[in-house]
Amino acid sequence: MTTVDAQKQQILGFFIEEAREHLDTIERGLLSLKDVVNDQEQMNELFRAAHSVKGGAAMLGYHSIQQVAHRLEDCFKVLKEEPKIQVDQVAEDLFLRGFDTLQQLLEQLQGPYGLQEDEAEQTVKDAEPVFVQLHDHLNQITGGGAAAMPPNFAPQVMGILKEMLVLFKQPPSDRGRQQIQGFCDRMAALAPDVETWEALTQTAKGAVGNPNAPFKELAPLLIKELKQASELMAAGKGQSVHASAALQKLATVPRVEAPAKAPVAATPAPPAAVPPVAATPAPPVAVPPVAASPAPESNELVIPRDPRGAAQALVKAFDRKQLTELAQLLIKVIKGQ
Questions:
Q1: Could you tell me how far CA 261 lies from the centroid of its own chain?
Q2: Cα 118 vs. chain centroid, distance in angstroms?
Q3: Angle at CA 237, nearest 5°, toward 233 and 240?
Q4: What CATH number should be reported for the domain whose range is 3-142?
């Protein structure tokens, strides 16, 4: 096994180990959900467990795991905000079915062939009706419902999408991306109380801001998803709105923009360059300090643009505690985009 392969296994091992611990927490909570729902601290543990799995999967590029964990997190949030809710058998069964999907994806990741993208996306697609039904059922038993939509919500969204399409047809530029991001903010402001709509528009904004996301690929995907989501919102099915794995992938911006020549600059000067300096007729007292003084150490860390390569570099540079702190900081930054 090469050094790179060993590093990949170490990164994967860290994630799987922590994910399994979080899944154990979730499973214990779901098996006694009727009691747990009345304990705010235990509900917080369930929410944090799903949140942690989501964040770790996002960092490593496992979008299917991220998406399912996010759906569970949203459902736990409903229970957190409704402490007096009476959970029934239907809700318990739906929660467990959603949890089984997350567990299935993690088992595939641990398998001999790893997590195959096509298979994982199909697993997420098959589970989507379960989460839609769960959200609808939670709204019923909490007495909640769809948030009030502004008048002509769908037509307003379509008007913004038409303006957005005009910019997408122009050559890509930083200014153009900023203007399109502004359109995303305008759409988010149309329904600020609907978290699923807010999450979708912010994911779209992140994808637009990714300089590696070409307009030719981004435009049709983003326009289609926002249009379909606006129709679901107008029909009172806002809880069914979510960003696809493809859009989430485009929204993943390189963590560090490292210059390609940074590694070359960090290499020591070739020995052949030293003798001329030492051999110059400068006074003997002045030469040794110049030739012997070490180059200042750099505190900078060169990180590849590839997410997995970046993760490998971070694992080599930091210990486990520092990696955990870094993951929490990155999650906060991503949520703030």
A1: 29
A2: 19
A3: 100
A4: 1.20.120.160
